Every structure is written in C-alpha cells, then in structure tokens.
Amino acid sequence: MCRAADLALRSALALLLALSAACGSRLPERDFTTRPPTAPGTTAPSTGASGTAAPDAAGPPIRVGVIASATSPVGGDALTGPRDGALAYFAALNARGGIDGRRVEPVTCDDGGSGAGNHTCVTELVEEKRVFALVATTALDYAAASRVSRAEVPDIGGQPIGPAYDTYPHLYGIYGSSAPRTGDRPGWNGVLYGGTEVYRYFKQVHGARTAAVVSYNQPSSAAYARLVSRGLRAEGYQVFEEQVDFALPNFRAVAADLRARRPDLVLDALDGHGNARLCEAMDAAGAIPTAKVTHAQNWDSTVPDAYAKAPRCRNALWATGSSRNHDDTSHPAVRAFRAAMDAHAEGVAIRSQWQLEGWAAAMWFTDAARSCLAGGPRGLTRACVERYVERPEPYTADGLLLPVRFERLERPPATRRACLSVARWKDGEGWVTQGDMNDNCATVPQLGYRP
C-alpha cells in the first residue's frame, strides 16, 4: 500500500532492525513539561567588532531545525537522506540570496534513533536554540512529537516512520494526511487507512494475478506481511506467504518455492540486507518474477552494489512511491535537485528518493515562508506558515510530489482516487520512470490497520 499504509512497513522495518540494539529508553512525559518561549525562531542580529548590531536590511536569518536519526541502530545513511536533501536545498537557496534577502540557517541534530535522544534534540532545537520550525524530520522514534505539537512549532515535510504525523496538530508529513490529528490517537480512533494502488497498478498495467509475500517470523514483520496480503487479496490476487527465521533465514528454501509457484509479484517485509540476500537466492534458483517490488526507502543509487550478486533479480526490481523518480533528469525540478546535491552535498555519494523528498520538504517550508514575507517582515509567523501548508490547494513542490493536502476528515473514506510514482531498475540506465506519476491513478479501496 502507498502513502498512509507505507507507514506500517516503515514502522515494521524500524522495529525489527532495532530488536537487538540499545535504542535508549523513552522518558516519562512529565520530565518534559517546560514550555519553550513563544517568540519565533529568528536569530538575533549579528554584531560587529564593537559589539553593535551589524546592518541587515532584510532581517535576521530564519533558523530551522533538522532532526535525523543519523547514528541509529538501522545503520549509517539509512535515515539521513531527507536531511541531506533539505540541507542541499537551503544551501542553494542561500547562494541565491535566501528568502527575500533573508538567509535560512538550518541547525541539525542527530537523535541516535532513540526516544531519549529525540527528546534531547527537541530540547536543544525548540527550547534552547528556538528554531522557527522543523523541516524534513526523519526520526526512528519520534518520541517528542507531542512536545513539538504543544509548542506549536510547525514540522514541515517529515518522513512518517511512526504514526506521529497522523496524530498531532502542527506536524505535516511529506505525504499529507486526512486524519483528524487531534493529538489523542492516530488516525480515526487509533486506525489508519491506506489504499491498494500499488497492487492495482501491477494488475492493470502488467497483468499480474499472483503474488508472494516474504516476511520474518518476527511480530512487526509478520503483521505488515498480513497487511500486504490483505491488500493483494482485495485486488483479486492469488496470494501465498513465505516466512523465514529472523536470526537464521533460509532464503534458499523460499527461492525454491518461488521457482515452483512462479508468482507474478514478489513483495516483502524485510530489511535491506534481507532483501538483497533474498534476491541472491532467487537469482541462483532462477525464480525471477515480473516484478520484485520495493519501496521508497530502497529507491536509491546503491542497487548495483547491494545486488551485485543478483543481476537478474536486480533488473526485476521495481519501486513505488509518492514522489517523482530522482533519476528522471528529463524533469527540470529533478535536474535542479541533482545539481544542488552535486554542488552542496560534498561527501554524499548516494542519490536517493528520500533525498529528493527532503529537498521537497525544504522547498515547501521556503514557499510558505516567502508567501508570509510578501506581507512584510512581520508577516512571517508560525501561524502564517501553517495556513499556507493547510490551504485547500494541494502542494507539489514544482512537480516533485504527488499533490499533498491536509484534510482532517471526520470519517475515513471508503475509497479514494490515488496516484503512484513507479520506476524500474535497468543496468546501464538506473531507475527508469514507468509512466507519469500523475497519470498512474485509480480509485481504490481504503483498508484500515492499527499502527
């Protein structure tokens, strides 16, 4: 499932990857009751050698916070893509003069992938450094989300690894939300909904009718696999499920069964390492489906290395998501993203979908701030930024995102028209876009699940 239901996969992978790691403990909410200052997070004017304020006709820099679980148990680079994309955007923006002459000053914080670390980052950024907003948050455990919401600090374009962006006001995930977001429970009385557009696409466009779903014998992985299977069956697929031991996975046995059953699609609830090992076993067994379907977190330039031992399976990889293919340089906004990454993201060799989405999050904040400053320097307030984000017109980040909106529906919709960005890996070409994402659309059922 795409958008909201993709949250289930992100949460499942985060949990199973962190099973044996020391993620830190979630501290009691009562330990974090100090309210931050209500003044917006613009920095004080710089001073000259004499200590007097240096002239700044446009106004002081606009300070924003960027939280990423950079040193999390998931491993290096897994959760830093949105941060890197946002930083590249702000660097390119400042090189052009900032927002109406005002520089954006991003302040980063690594929460280590733990709840305690996340609270520390929020204390540092919101209470001590008094950032105006958060941008492109990518937290393995967004434990301090309620504090950000209570402080009324807008969080723009975060990656929904957990249910926070479908729970709290003032938080705006990169894919939007239709949930009430009252701060009580996620979604509608604790239930989130997602569509079956991924499965509908492969059925309609590629004639897929059978599917295999591979998971670990671990609760979060198995729960997501059941959700995938449910969505596939809702679209009329014949589904069979494969499960491997989390500690000692026997992917050869799975591959042998896949060769015997010959499903059209293979989907999974595995981590990146498990995905690559499964592909190697499938390659060796000659069990190559029409599509080995992955998701936005694995939609990056590491494919040749990660799947080096599985050339046939590698070229059967398909990725789906809600943003324009980061490899599609025929689109001007993608070219701008890649040029800025090359110029401003020194040492970051990987190019990924999450980087593009972090870039789009920074653009979203910038467009909101610029609209507020059009009314004069005093127009830039948090409330004004949120009015821009919540306006009825959907946001697309110059065509990089499928239209994003926040609706706060009283009841979840039974069906919804949903669109899908699709790409396929091809050696020598990279990720190749499959149809325009604004045309890969269908009206599909919305299935509920508890995160």
What is the overall silhouette? globular
Give the topology string: H per helix, E per strand: HEHEHEHEEEHEHEHEHEHHEHHHEEEE
**C-alpha-based Rg, rounded:** 22 Å
- Note poorly predicted spans: 1-5, 15-39, 44-56
Distance between the amino and carboxyl termini: 14 Å
CATH level-4 homologous superfamily of one domain? Response regulator
User: What is the CATH architecture term of one domain?
Assistant: 3-Layer(aba) Sandwich
Please give the order of strands in the largest beta sheet: 8-7-9-10-11-13-14
How many helices? 13
Mean pLDDT: 89
How many beta-strand segments? 15
The oligomerization state is single chain
CATH topology of one domain: Rossmann fold
Major beta-sheet overview: 7 strands, mixed
SS class: alpha/beta
What proportion strand? 15-25%
Portion in helices: 25-40%
Keywords: Signal
InterPro entries: Leu-bd (IPR028081), Peripla_BP_I (IPR028082)
Protein name: Leucine-binding protein domain-containing protein
Family: Belongs to the leucine-binding protein family.
